[in-house]
Fold:
Amino acid sequence: MAALLVATLLSGCDTMTPDECKSANWNDIGMRDGLAGKTMSVLNDHAKSCSKAGTAVDSANYIAGRERGLRTFCRLENAAPLGLNGSAYAGVCPAPLDFEFRRRHQAGYAVYTLRSQVDGLDSRGERLQRRLREADKDEAKQLAASDKDDERKRIRREFDERRRDVRNELRDIDRNLQGTRDALRSAEYSLDTMR
Structure:
């Protein structure tokens, strides 16, 4: 059983199936990997996968295809959208382009990160607002079920404290949200001036 699990996990690391290895057009595979901005280490992964299938990698054709793919991938107009999608840049572009590509990618990625933070803060705020509404309903139910004044006072204190904690957290989120939105506007402006 353990051997089967290990074999399954190891096969999950294969980049190609045995059938793909046997019928591979290495120039096309290199082109696809280049278009995706993948590093040369992927060739080693393909070689490992295909050695299990008893086939060899045509490195020369793979590299030629990858270089063609990288020429398209490394266009400067692709850098910011890559970052805006949250995709990583692996430093695969030639040295003359790498600095500017990396700079534009980082600007796009900064916008992506800040947008994600705004979305996360908005979601957290919505969840807290729901907690406030639920606390009101729960309090009303508990008060309706209790006929003792001391018990009703305790229930009110308990729910007042809960609501106060949630409201404090909401205020913190609002402050963070305002600062993050300001940073996002600045990052979007920087990105726009770069294009």
Q: What stands out?
A: The radius of gyration is 28 Å. The chain has eight helices and no strands.
